[in-house]
Amino acid sequence: MTSWTAASTFILLTAPQTPSAQAIPAIGAESHNLFSLRAFDHLWRSFFGTSLSDSSCGLPQRIDADDAKIISNDEFLVHLRGFRKSICKSSAWHVASMRIDPCRIRQKTENKNVVDIKKCSLNGKFSEVRFVLQPVEETDRGPIYPDAAMHVAFSLHDIMKFKEIWTQKRKKPQELIAAVKKYGRLNDVSLFISGGGLERWSFARVVFSNGHWTQDKLAHGGFFESLSDADGKLSLVRTPPRSADSRFTQDDFLNPLRVSPLNGSCLSCHLTDSDKGLRQFRQLGWGLSGEPVASRRLLAEAEEAAKELNILDKQQP
């Protein structure tokens, strides 16, 4: 079961009741899967350095340093401390949601015509279709949805292809995935994952270029970010906010015309909706119990995307 929301600019799929339920598996051999098993394993290695099927996947490693030392060395803390073993199964990963956005980076003013939208998109650099992948784990008490996600972004260099995909929104999600893979180019994947006890959250991002995944440096100059709820509340996050970030209000962060990924920190934007810490970090997809999640920031971005898609639908470039 699926539902299109926010003027049909993103789709949120119903969480499967068991890992084997036919929601939309993210990994498989058919064209409507985002990755083949081999391609997903290649992606996995770019984050963890080992194969998805490695027997040590998810297990804590024997290390001597404390968390602070590991983080200061820019090591992947959750990887070293261990995470839920269920995440290491390719069959656990499903497509939770899909989002269409012709202009991910917006600056101060609305885009009111095709020329503005094409300028904002910078020839596809900031035009994307994003898929949120989440794992499902079966337990004695029923399925749970671990605190982990991958955001898979495809860029579309032809802005009018967004209109074609958008007008096909009544099709099955598998058909939309096939269309995005046909018209788009795999650009980047962001990984969000927490430790086994949900005590620590980590983030990493890789970019796909020339057939290879490359770790993308974050604002602090390293490849990984790791923090706890306490870190967030005490403002000890290593990613330095941009100078203007501290002057933004909550209303600013909820307005995509005022704050974009270029002038505000990702963490601040993600946590704007709630004062409950990192357990509320999810923006779009399934919560820990499979409940639908769609943040206010996401809804605001989706409304802007809907306006632009309507412009593309009515005007010729």
Determine the number of helices (DSSP H or I, runs of at least 4 residues): 10
How many angstroms separate the termini? 35 Å
Quickly count the domains: 1
The run of helices and strands is: EEHHHEHEEEEHHEEEEHHHEEH
Taking all Cα atoms into account, the compactness measure Rg is 19 Å
pLDDT averaged over residues: 82
Shape: globular
Show unreliable segments. Answer: none
Strand content: 15-25%
Number of strands: 13
Class based on secondary structure composition and strand pairing: alpha+beta
Helix % is 25-40%
Largest sheet: 9 strands, antiparallel
Question: If you had to describe this structure to a student in words, what would you say it looks like?
Answer:
α5 packs across α10 (296-314). It contains 10 helices and 13 strands. It has one domain. β8 and β9 form a beta hairpin. The mean pLDDT is 82. It has helices at residues 37-48, 67-72, 77-81, 114-121, 160-167, 173-183, 229-233, 250-253, 266-270, 296-314, and strands at residues 2-5, 10-13, 93-101, 128-135, 137-139, 142-144, 148-155, 185-194, 201-209, 212-215, 224-227, 284-286, 292-294. It has 317 residues and is an alpha+beta fold. The strands form 3 sheets. Strands 1, 2, 3, 4, 7, 8, 9, 10 and 11 form a 9-stranded antiparallel β-sheet that branches. Helices cover 26% and strands 23% of the residues. The two termini are 35 Å apart.
